[in-house]
Amino acid sequence: MIDRLNKLKNTNVKSINVNEENIIESVKDATQGFPLVIETQSTSLNLKSWISHNKEKFEQDMINYGGVLFRGFEINSVNKFQDLMNIFPNELLEYKLRSSPRHSISGNVYVSTTYPNDQIINMHSESSYAPVHPSRIIFCCVTPALKKGETPIADTRKVLKKISRETVEMFREKGIKYRRVLNGILGLAWQEVFQTDDKEIVEKECLNNGMEFCWKGDKELVISWTKKAIWEHPITNEEIWFNHGLFFNKYMLNKRVLSSISDDEKLPNNTFFGDGTEISKEIIEEINNAFIKSTVSFPWEKGDVLFLDNLLMAHGRNTYEGERKVIVSMY
């Protein structure tokens, strides 16, 4: 126990509480104030049961901290994570209107985005661009990377406060327009994004969700739509920066991809102000810097489970070496 407490003292612990269940609570980054770490000293303590019996506390912690990291509960396999997710059997969401390659392992449990390990995944709020977005996203580390491979997280309340008032007001007034070119060349194919080969189903989904669409032959589909950029959290009523304006913007694309495209119309994705005007490189850099200043990053340990309030916490992925298996579910 003493060794564990000393270890926690070296990781910016804000407070430590040890109760009868051999639980230690701490804050991973005391300066930023999140995430809460709940770590067990008992290998016999079942996380599924603990959450069920401490539901009120769990829900309050999620609101207070935006993210809760459970450590030491040995959720170190797909089956164990799937069993944990059975707490929310009627709430788990499918990964719809996809923006990145991700395959299902079991039910609504997925492998986190299959993206080259030498490239980062920029900060984003899961499916904030989509007609339906999850309230929560849960990560489980089955195999930590040999080096790096962290999943950085950022408080969207803090991000919003670090963007200039002038920029915020432009987004508040105009919203964000998204444009995607789906052809399977530089981005995903339309069949993977919509999870169907039926054009009629795709067109119906676009019409139902206020998306403009244009077919360019059988292999390419261009879609565009507008959403608000700044939201209110449904429970706390706090304003949050909740959108894919940064993630989808051309200035955040991989340089190799950008160098291969001479016409912006061929970009796999891009974002604009809601009136269709360009978002400048300077504004994108301002938003990116706001994320950098609001981000916490920590090494994964095998068996870690990280619950995030998807509206309060954005996330990304760092580069890594070696095998890495982080699985995910949403509700």
TrEMBL record:
Keyword Oxidoreductase annotated: yes
Pfam families, alphabetized: TauD
Obligatory cofactor(s): Fe(2+)
Domain TauD/TfdA-like: 38-329
UniProt-listed GO biological process terms: antibiotic biosynthetic process
GO MF annotations, alphabetized: 2-oxoglutarate-dependent dioxygenase activity
Keywords on record: Antibiotic biosynthesis, Dioxygenase, Oxidoreductase
Name the record gives this protein: TfdA family taurine catabolism dioxygenase TauD
